[in-house]
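Section: Multi-chain targets

For targets with more than one molecule, the full set of components is provided together so that the structure can be written out for the assembly as a whole rather than chain by chain. Components appear in the order listed by the source. The example entry contains three components.
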Amino acid sequence: MDPAGPSAEAINSLWWVMLAGATAIFLLVTALLTMAFLRQGDGSTSARKWIIGGGLVFPSTVLLALLAYGLIIGERLLPRSGPQVVEVGAESSRWRWTFHHQRPDGSILTTPDVLHIPAGRPIDVVLTTRDVIHAFWVPRLAGKMDAIPGHRNVLRIEAAAPGTYAGICAEYCGIGHAGHAFRVVVHDDAGWSGFLTGESS
Amino acid sequence: MTALLRAVSGLIVWAVAFSALYGLQGLGCALGWDAMMVGPIQLGRAALIALWLAFVAVQAWMIWHFSHHTHGSMFLNRLAVAIAVIGWVATIYTGVPVVTTSMCF
Amino acid sequence: MKALRLHRAFEAIWGAPKGWRGTFSSVNHSTLGIRLMVTAFGFFLIGGILAMLIRAQLATPHSAFVGPEAYAQFFTMHGSIMMFLFAIPMFEGFAIYMLPKMLGTRDFAFPRLTAYGWWCYLFGGSMLLFAMLAGVAPDAGWFMYTPLSSKPYSPGINSDFWLLGITFVEISAIVTAVDIVVTILKMRAPGMSLDKMPLFAWYMLVTTMMMLVGFPPLILGSILLELERAFGWPFFDAARGGDSLLWQHLFWLFGHPEVYIIFLPAAGAVSMILPVMARTRILGYGWIVGAVIALGVLSFGLWVHHMFTVGIPHMALAFFSAASTLVAIPTGVQIFAWIGTLWAGRPQMKMPMLYLIGFFIVFVMGGLTGVMVAVVPFDWQAHDSAFVTAHLHYVLFGGFVFPMLAAAYYWLAHFTGRQYQYRLGTAAFWLILVGFNLTFLQMHIVGLLGQARRIETYPAGIGWTAYNLVSSIGGFILAFGIGLFLIDILLQFFHAPKSRRNPWGAGTLEWAMLIPSTSYNIASIPHVDDREPVHDQPDLALSLARGEGYLAEPRNGWRETLAVKTSSGKIDHIIVLPGNTTLPVWTAVVTGGFFVLMLLKLYWLTLLPLLGLVVMAWRWAAELGRKEDVGALSVGHGLSLVTHAEVQDPPGWWGSIFLLTADGTFFASLLFGYAFLWTVAPAWPPPHLFDAGIADLAAALAGAALAAFGARSALRRLRRGSTGGGALAIAGLTIMLLALCAAVLRAPPPTEHAYNAVLAVLIAYAVFHVAIALLMQVFVLLRARAGFLSPQRSAELRIAQLWADYGVGSGLIVLFAIHVPALIA
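Its structure, encoded as tokens over all components, is:
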């Protein structure tokens, strides 16, 4: 779905693989169903053939492969520490987002409703909430993660190229939910250092 | 009624195994067992693997037991063996993450 | 004309009085089953209208149709109504109507509970409807996540309506589940061993067991949240040691099994209809039974897949991801058993089959997207988006509504007694199928594009407009289809010609009777040697109507039916069922009084209905029983059996076992909550631990031992023909109650910390159960003195002993759970 980062990219390939598989299985079931009506049987079909073949062996194989694929990707998307990782804070509340960026001198640069990140580097978004549960979701960059009272969750995102991406709150959080959106501005190297030193914002 | 309970016991043991693994994982993370090492692996993971294999062994024994000792009707006996096999496979399958995924991350 | 004479005699015993008196006093399963189905269909239409309003709002961007407040009530009520007030009562009603007929018996094990269940459902559902009409309907989403649903963010009465109304309806679900389980296990036609039951009975057995284990966590969660809202006990408030994740665990611990609880009865209907449509027998009966049991148990290992984005470690997610993919296998077994059955038979495209085709197409797609969202990384994208909305509608509409529509056409003659006519159903089918797919197919895509759930507006120009407009048009086509279906069904009641007794040539017992069915179902009870007895004996219906089976002679005006051994189906004893009574409706009114007073925040006054319930329950039990032994009575075919009053395990004993199973799950969920908060919640350990009292603990242990011994001793003495021993049990339980009250006095104030609040609930739980056990011991003591017990009639004592053991056991566990951490520290 028009991914713009490695995380969304991996999930996107997963989606296309699953969609192809699901379509094939759906067509198979429909075909078997249609043929059952066309052939008009004589009551002598073996239960084992259908149930062991179709009900056990076939789905087990497919599901085992899919589970393994899913777990491998899942492990890859975890927020592991590394030298390149940039940590930003996302504090949600009804109905705004407050993003905290750390400057090289240790001071915090706070922006409302716009998150700034550098392109091509893994970002750990630290999610907290001041009231109810919210969820941080930038569909083109990565999956989503909830912000839960009393907990601190971390979501790994990454954008391949500079640009602006739309983000929303995915968890229903009251009457302002539909408008509880934000933007992610992705900078190139120069733009990023410029942002941190306060030259542009 | 006991024959019926016996027939479904394979899956009930799976439910116990599944809850035990999930509970031990949560407890292990809360107690910091992912940071302690036993030889090459984390203490928490070692405990989880031990628990997982113990259940796999118990359920393998259940299959053997149900297929060699009958109780009640033929139908319920066959059901007991089948459910024991399903429960055993389910424990193996749902327990695989103890060796393949990050424990507290 | 022996058949006609029997019909009149049985109708006089089993029928209900005419007019309003009959409406309030009937306990007949056919009447109540139809009432449940009609009520549920009414709620389905209301839920459908809400869906139309939602689609009207979303049809265009920046819609000004309704504001966010009203929209929040729409989607919350749409979900809540469809789940709690439509789907569950609909299949319960169907099972209540149909199961005794399929099993070859005359009514349910607990007819008064059946009636109580319907009244509770009606009153609880009406509370929610009233809230909607008054504009204060619940508005925090049908899964009521805290803290959004907690007092600070939902200060109005809206959430209270949900918590109290749904709990009221859940009471109905629990008692109905107990009713159904006991009926399936004990009240089949003689000879019907478990493997000769119609598959629908297996599906319902598994479903109702799942309800007994799956609903208690939700009831617990609702009680805890209501306690937090009403009294400030902070179970879910992170600042005071609570955790909103506890709500999510309790809710989904119920919520995921719930999906299968809804699907399985519908799948059971498919397994009954499909072989008949294919003019053959079902393929792989044993495989299907195994698959259904596997589905029932495995579905309890999926709940965290609704919580993949709450920040749980990957290994824990992987357990649930694995279980979620695994559960597709038993589903696959069923699908292929059904396709294999069609393959083996000579399928004909009658109206029920048409709807089954719709079921296959829609449900298989829902199953496939279900496997997709079971894969963790994909779910991180799809979660809480329109993709999930689409998926769940494919599963629930495909897996429940289509089979139930097929069932409506298949069993229609049972209700109307008429042949199906007109074929409007075909047009309805195409409208429903096309409308459904137009509504939901592209919703998958717009979800992946980023449309979240539960938004009431979206910007133009981001590519969502066309998808949403098509969805809305599709939704209205679907609504026309449902309307046409309703008209079609109503027309059948008036114009169609009389139907043959067994219009489809089916083989199961529900077709071996007059249609529309009579109040007593069958004039005599058959002996069954085959899964499809009507195939073996095509004239079975006539033979039963002529009284050639068991219990063919009406006796003493009793409502008699037969009980069998659970597994083998060997004939065991006679059950004499209670007749029409207004006790259920009054008990439901009193129960409703409790919930209404809670809503009005008149908390002290709720003690009145609670006291009223004790009185009602007392009468409920006191109305039954006899002061003399009746001994063995003839049931026909040269066989004589005793009545249930004179056996060790009458239905009441079995009912207690299953009710206690549900109660035990409730208790286990509470202990889970305690452990969960201790290990996961922020702000733990609590500032002050419980002030342990060794003397109380010792007194409670002594009381427990005395109670357990006393209850057993009373039973032993009764077998030897003497009364007594009950006083010991009463003394023991009283000591325990006092020890628990002492713990209440020392307990820290519940509003300070979640630990204190959990302690208070644990103690209250124990006090409640010890008090019930005590009341029951007093009851049996008085019954013994009044002559209701004898060495033969000892069941009441055995039931009281079950509850005494449970009260003592749970009391001890509670005392240990509150003392042990305090003693260690």
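The first strand of chain C starts at residue 559 and ends at 564.
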